[in-house]
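Reopening closed ticket. The problem is back. First fold of the pair:
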Amino acid sequence: QVQLVESGGGSVQAGGSLRLSCAASGYTYCMGWFRQVPGKEREGVAGILWRSGRTYYVDSAKDRFTISQDGTQNTLYLQMNSLKPEDTATYYCAAMRNSDGYCARFRSSEYQLWGQGTQVTVSS
């Protein structure tokens, strides 16, 4: 099984940037970034097919966030630019092992492994 460890969270002012990293080991079909605020369900942000590199984004992340991978190092990244206060959340790296799943769905139940989360706080 893969193990996921996120890093790169922090506090920034609106308009700033952060790059999140997720170190993974083992095979995975798809990896994604999710975020969650207290009292709400986790929501998808971006996903990537590990083998092909095809990427997917939710509307709120398009044109601001970029998901990428370093296959050699088995590392997943999320570059976040033009951050807004509404981006404040705990961000999680997740791995999907079942190819019947679909990255673009951003369905939490289709991801089997999760990191511990890294906090992103954007102040106005």
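Second fold of the pair, where the issue appears:
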Amino acid sequence: QVQLVESGGGLVQPGGSLRLSCAASGRDFSLYVMGWYRQAPGKQRELVATITSGGTTNYADSVRGRFTISRDNAKNTVSLQMSSLKLEDTAVYYCKVHKTGNWPAWGQGTQVTVSS
């Protein structure tokens, strides 16, 4: 089975940091462009960051300079280091292969709550 499992979310104060991790199984994802997405209550899911197999990154304007996406192809993992967190970063965060529709299926995600 192909599966992506997110972890690392939690409650953090504004200005704080969190590191999210995405563990992949069932397939070697080293050649795929990977992405982190997020969805806040009442809002559409949005793309946060992407990373190519070679490590080229792109970020949404809202997170550029604060978030860093990375990957370890040997471990088949993707991470999202978040710093200088803002209230508007509160959302459920998901990892997924970029631009493959609904493959693999969306997982449970991990909740990030930024609150003072």
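Update: turned out to be a display glitch only; the data is intact. The chain has no helices and ten strands. Strands lie at 3-7, 10-12, 18-25, 34-39, 46-51, 57-59, 67-72, 77-82, 91-97, 110-114. Please close again.
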